[in-house]
Amino acid sequence: MEKKSSKKNWPVIISYIVLIAYAIATLFPFTWALLVSLTPITYTDENGNPHGVNIFDWPPNVKLFPRPSAFGAPLTFQNYKLIFEVVPLYGRWLLNTVIYAGLLTIGNFLLDALGGYAFARLKFPLKDMWFTLFLATMMVPSQVTLIPQYNMLVNYGLINTYTGMFLPKLTNIFGLFLMRQFFLNFPKELEEAARIDGSGILRTYFTIVLPNAMPGVSALAIYTFLGAWNDFQWPLIIASRKEMYTLTVGLNFFKSSYYTYWQYMMAASIFMTIPMIIIFLSFQKQFIETGRAVAVKG
Questions:
Q1: Distance (Å, rounded) from C-alpha 298 to C-alpha 296?
Q2: For the chain, first and last CA: distance in Å?
Q3: Contact, 107 vs 171, CB < 8 A?
Q4: What average pLDDT does range 107-123 have in this prediction?
Q5: What is the Cα–Cα distance from 259 to 82, expressed in whole angstroms?
Q6: pTM reported for the whole predicted model
Q7: What kind and span of H or E run contains 288?
Q8: Rounded to an integer, what distance in angstroms lies between the CA atom of residue 98 and that of residue 163?
Q9: 51-76, pLDDT tens digit by residue?
Q10: Which pairs with CB-CB distance under 8 Å and at least 24 residues apart come from 48-56?
Q11: Which residue ranges form the domains of the chain, and what is each CATH number?
Q12: Average pLDDT estimate for 128-150
């Protein structure tokens, strides 16, 4: 019996080994970026001699004591302060990113949830055909629609404006599909009870359905926020003025034609990654619950 149980455990052991190896490989770039962000460009040794730091030395000069940096220099948080001095517009880019991600999150929160509920519950002509057409647009590469969208915004004078940045992205088909699948599994008894009490469709939706659909709506909001926070292509195209750049576009300004300030660039990258990590860890329960709800019914 012991031999059989040990044989059965081998697949589990192998799977754990593979997962641990994958986790190490995934965390290695982030660990390297974190070490670089904490390493000064130059430092002074115990004898008062200045030294430069080559972050691409391999293998790294790992000496935790007395020099705690993997690159032989003392660790410091000074780089996180200096990024605002090296690139004075970094604070403006942070504000632009918050506005862009926030507006897209609110828009998708309202429109995708409302549209998903309509496709899941309401009856109107050619409903299935319209939904199929919407899903078909997901197979069209985004690059195909970039030029028409850009020309349209140029004609309306919306280049280098917040309106031009978020208006074309105010809703998306994935969010519509996600919320439709979620509402297909929503208990109809709650809606029927509200209608018996005399509530209309909109009142039922906003007072009964939406408050009880927070797991799905929260997951949609998180997906949208993380996607907008990391978006590079659209802000790069729609913003030609430096004042309208987002963080992803502005990272390019930490390098020049002859030198790249890797310490500052990695500090800026870690700085913009921290909010995403906090949000994901705080709301990962909503991700799991929504994934289960969407998978139940297709």
A1: 7
A2: 43
A3: yes
A4: 89
A5: 17
A6: 0.80
A7: helix 284-296
A8: 14
A9: 666 677 665 554 444 455 666 667 77
A10: 53/263, 55/262, 55/263
A11: 2-83 (no CATH), 88-296 (1.10.3720.10)
A12: 87
pLDDT value at residue 59: 53
Q: How many CB atoms lie within 10 A of CB 48?
A: 6
**Of the candidates 134, 93, 47, 71, the residue with the CA atom closest to the CA atom of residue 262:** 71
* CA distance readout (Å), 283 to 218, 233, 289: 8, 26, 10
Determine the pLDDT at residue 43: 64
Is residue 273 very low, low, confident or very high in pLDDT (cuts 50, 70, 90)? confident
Q: What percent of the chain has pLDDT over 70?
A: 82
Torsions phi, psi for 74 (to 5 deg):
-65, 140
- With residue 43 as reference, give the H or E element that holds it: strand 42-44
Amino acid at 8: K
CA distance 94 to 100: 10
DSSP designation for 89: T
Start-end of H helices in 38-89: 78-86
Q: Is 70 exposed, middle or buried (0-12, 13-18, 19+ CB in 10 A)?
A: buried
Distance CA 100, CA 272 (A): 14
Buried b (16+ CB within 10 A) or exposed e, 199-234: beeeebbeebbbeebebbbbbbbbbbbbbbbebeeb
A 10 A CB-CB count for 261 gives 19
Collect all residues with Cβ–Cβ distance below 8 Å to 278 and sequence separation of at least 6: none
Tens-place pLDDT, residues 201-228: 888 888 888 888 887 888 888 889 988 9
Q: What is the DSSP string of 104-124?
A: HHHHHHHHHHHHHHHHHH---
Task: Say which residues have a Cβ less than 8 Å from residue 277's Cβ, sequence separation at least 6.
Answer: none
Report in angstroms the alpha-carbon separations of 285 from 33, 274, 297. 28, 19, 20
Q: Which two tokens stand for residue 16?
A: 């754990």
